[in-house]
Inverse folding.
């Protein structure tokens, strides 16, 4: 039998024997673990258990999401897994919610009927030219609208003759005094029309006229209607050219039923109504005329 070298760190026969150097077979093959070694072993086991629990908490969500994809899964299993589960503070979504989150949201398809109706809508005939192809009719229609806008801006405001009666007296010196208006002889109660578009600024009594109506016209001038019998408008009312605003009367300093019409310019100066109306295209030849 070969001999073994005994070193300082080797286990000797004496260390296996009991205390007191007694001879014979050893009573124990291993030494009893100390309290320190038991504490270390318990700590090691605790660390290992914590690692296993942490790994389980990370793997469990993945298994829950993958469960519907595994072969042999059934609807009953999905319903059972639909309830939320918590593993070590990690909330796992129900399988039904996970599926809804993973599925793409379908976008509504456009309505072909509405698109077709829009394309098939007829284009109005521009400049009165019918049966034009859409690629020509659409630009011409836009040009027609642009021309209408320019015409409205450039064209003078519409104007009408206030009454149909004959002009009995004109603007200028009369009987040694200045006559600042244009007189139209007409029957008592005949309608008086607004000369142009504007806003009524006064309707009521006036010295020398009995009753009058004054309209601030859109071009900045003021039209004055004197000796009226009845008034159909009030201050602040909007009127258009041709609207009946009053009737012919004989009130105030008057020698017979007639309308006294004055036109004041933007600064308030009284101007001759005849050239003013003629410049707006108003016919001034109706009935007998002093001019």
């Amino acid at each position: 039998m070969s001999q073994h070298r005994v070193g300082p760190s080797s286990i000797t026969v004496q260390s296996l024997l009991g205390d007191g150097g007694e001879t014979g077979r050893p009573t124990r093959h291993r030494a009893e673990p100390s309290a320190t070694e038991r504490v270390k072993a318990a700590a090691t086991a605790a660390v290992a258990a914590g690692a296993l629990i942490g790994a389980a908490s990370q793997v469990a969500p993945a298994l829950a999401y993958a469960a519907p994809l595994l072969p042999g899964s059934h609807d009953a299993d999905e319903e059972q897994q639909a309830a939320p589960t918590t593993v070590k503070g990690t909330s796992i979504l129900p399988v039904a919610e996970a599926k809804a989150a993973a599925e793409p949201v379908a976008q509504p398809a456009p309505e072909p009927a509405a698109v077709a109706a829009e394309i098939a809508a007829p284009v109005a005939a521009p400049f009165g030219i019918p049966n034009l192809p859409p690629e020509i009719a659409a630009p011409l229609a836009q040009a027609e609208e642009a021309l209408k806008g320019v015409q409205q801006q450039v064209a003078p405001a519409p104007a009408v003759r206030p009454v149909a009666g004959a002009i009995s007296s004109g603007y200028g010196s009369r009987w040694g005094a200045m006559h600042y208006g244009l007189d139209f002889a007409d029957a008592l109660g005949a309608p008086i029309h607004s000369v142009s578009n504007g806003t009524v600024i006064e309707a009521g009594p006036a010295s020398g006229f009995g009753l009058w109506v004054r309209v601030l016209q859109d071009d900045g001038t003021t039209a004055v209607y004197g000796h009226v019998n009845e008034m159909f408008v009030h201050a602040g009312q909007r009127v258009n050219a041709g609207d009946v605003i009053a009737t012919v009367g004989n009130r105030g300093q008057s020698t017979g039923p007639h309308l006294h019409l004055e036109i004041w310019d933007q600064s308030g100066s009284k101007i001759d109504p005849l050239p003013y109306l003629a410049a707006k295209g108003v016919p001034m030849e109706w009935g007998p005329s002093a001019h």
